[in-house]
Amino acid sequence: MDVQRPLLGEQVAAHSATAYRRLRAGARAAAFILIWAQSVAAHPAADRHALYLDFSDGTGEITLGEADDSSRNTSSLCGASPLLRWQGAADCPDRDSCQDAITELVREHFRDFALDVTSRRPQQSYTTIVIAPASGDCKFGVRGLSFNDCGDASQKNLGFAFACSQTVVECAAVIAHEAGHTFGLDHTSDQRDLMYSGTPGDVAPVFLDRELPVSEPFCQRGTQNSHSQLLATLGERAIGDLEARDTAAAAAGGCQLARASSSGQFPSELPLALSAALVLCFAARRRAGIASRAWTPAPIR
Fold first, then answer.
1. CB 186 within 8 A of CB 216
2. Nearest-5° angle of CA 216, CA 221, CA 227?
3. Buried b (16+ CB within 10 A) or exposed e, 207-246
């Protein structure tokens, strides 16, 4: 018996240490949730902009009207009945995981801003970007289209992203670009900026934080800092909100993008392997039917 007592004591100590570490981890997660709750209280959902990504399932329609009304699927640009089904992108194993990956990439593009990006229709006023093939009268031969709302006069704008059949990276960039127009951004002449008027090529663009020449001054400005303009329109996302979102995603087994740089934006080039890994992560979660574990790609150096 005397030999067993020290061993039992060591086991109790080990279990106590493990319990203590778990308690600390739980307390830290609770602290992040508290920070997030305080941030939401300071910035109520009704006061925040919301961006709804409407991945067309082929059953909806767009009605032509005098002005955009996202709550009624009304567009001032065109009408389509029915609105054709978006089948997914070529680099996705299935439509659902593709939708998840695109939504996460769009959230990353708007990470610095107080904007709620969702693929579920919100309750409050919101901007909609419809992801669908060219349908009905909504055939313009462009990658995407939306009304340029100078001064962000309305939070019920509705735009389109058509170029979403090839890669999740391209689709997310088109969505962010068209959403930028609904928030009052013009086209710029730098292909590194998400508001570049042409095809960016091999560069993964961001909302650049620098003054750039405007290529098409629809809003009567000669230059534009896309990042600063969005900060002025949408507001800055609270740091606690970001940390809580990432912590909650990891705790729930979410698929996350590693922080790419200290500025909180993508680097100038985004390897295809990163987007492919993100897609595969969401596909695995869909197949499992549950959020099994967190998976974060390595940061880009």
1. yes
2. 90
3. bbeeebebeeeebeeeebbbbebbbebbeebbebbbebbb
β-sheet with 158-161: strand ranges across: 115-118, 49-55, 127-131, 158-161, 144-145
pTM recorded for the entire structure:
0.71
Cis check for the bond before 217: say yes or no (omega within 30 of 0).
Answer: no
pLDDT in tens, 83-139: 999 999 998 889 999 999 999 999 999 999 999 999 999 988 999 999 999 999 998
How far, in Å, CA of 79 to CA of 62, rounded? 5
Rounded to 5°, the CA angle 110-275-48 comes to 15
